[in-house]
Amino acid sequence: MAKIIVLCCLIILAAFGSVNGSSKKQEVGFYELKKGDISMKFTNWGAAIVSLILPDKHGKLTDIVLGFDSTKEYQTNAPSFGALVGRVANRIGGAQFTLNGTHYKLIANDGNNTLHGGPKGFGHVVWKVKKHSNEGHTPHIVFTYYSVDGDQGFPGALLATVRYALIGNNQLSITMKAKALNKPTPVNLAQHAYWNLNGHNSGDILSNVIQIFGSQITLLDSQLIPTGKFKSVKGTPYDFLEPHPIKSKINGLANGYDINYVLDDGVGYKLKRAAVVHDPKSGRVLELSTNAPGVQFYTSNTLDIKGKGGFEYKPFAALCLETQAFPDSVNHPNFPSTIVSPGKPYKHYMLFKFSTN
Fold first, then answer.
1. Which of 4, 53, 175, 176 could bond to 189 as cystine, CB 3.0-4.6 Å?
2. Which helix H or strand E contains 71, and what residues bound it?
3. Is 169 known as a binding-site position?
4. Is 287 an annotated catalytic residue?
5. Is 192 a catalytic residue?
């Protein structure tokens, strides 16, 4: 039986055609998709979204994703612009956890904690371009990555896949999958695009009107690690159950938003609404649906970096809506489990609908 499992793993790896450290490394490049009024650019460094261009209410085309001009800049992408982060997105407290009686110590890269999978997490590696089609009704690109047993301290070999596809009328579908090959392991993949619906170089997003379909948040300690408890958003600066401008509530916080919302429609594979964002200046609207239990709302609170065209991105220059499992789930038995086992693959869906109003 062990020989059969090893053989199956080798067959899968051969199909993916890329193993960490192998001689089949791909060059880092840019790849494009276009459908109707929407066009996008990606890089295989971190399987990242580089740009998304679509018209405003007057028909003017603008890039609404923060990022860089060159692939070299993405290889030192400290903010994780547009990246597919993992093996476990968000934070793991103390950079450690215990699974099935075995204690695992991870590589800390956020004080004493692990953030977005560690210093060489999935957002900081080269992915293989498995498929790329800019033709037909569904232009799409598929990236794959093989993570070895012990990568950043995590147990088990893992095959990760992300598929970006332009569908329907100005819609972006993102499908994230992962297979544990030989051991149970935590998995929590997230898409880390920085959105500014008025344009990546237009200033801050504080006038954006946002609605988040989560009536609770996961409470955090001083290191932004969940305590394991939940709190109602009602009557707090986190209450976006009805649409509000971000600037109308952000002054009630010390450093802006960086918090996980518990989405209201429960856990499962049924897509549910996570958030709606409207930029009054451009008229652009972003609607996000997902099957994930949570969404991290982040307002780029400490951003200070030069981006596309030499533009200086400053705090609040963009917002992130990272659908995800709850942060530090592996250390909180009362949170939905993030453990993926051989034969029980991980699936995470996001659907963005763009329009004008």
1. 176
2. helix 71-74
3. no
4. no
5. yes
Q: Which amino acid is at 206?
A: L
Are residues 39 and 53 in contact, defined by beta-carbon separation less than 8 angstroms?
yes
321: helix, coil or strand?
Answer: strand
Read off the tokens for 59: 């028909």
**Which listed residue (116, 140, 192, 200) is catalytic?**
192
- Half-sphere exposure of 187 toward its Cβ, with a 13 Å CA cutoff? 27
Which residues of the chain, if any, have pLDDT below 70?
Answer: 1-25, 266-269
Write down the catalytic residue from 116, 140, 322, 348.
322
Strands, sheet with 272-278, edge to edge from the N-terminal-most edge strand: 128-133, 140-147, 158-167, 171-180, 346-356, 284-290, 272-278, 209-212, 244-245
- Is 194 annotated as contributing to ligand binding? yes
Q: Rounded to a whole number, what is the distance in angstroms from the first to the last CA of the chain?
A: 59
Q: Which two tokens stand for residue 14?
A: 């051969």
Q: Tens of pLDDT along 268-315?
A: 557 999 999 999 999 999 999 999 999 999 999 999 999 999 999 999
Q: Is 193 annotated as a binding-site member?
A: yes
Name the pTM for this structure: 0.92
Residues 6+ apart with CB under 8 A from 43: 28, 29, 30, 31, 50, 71, 74
63 labelled as ligand-binding?
A: no
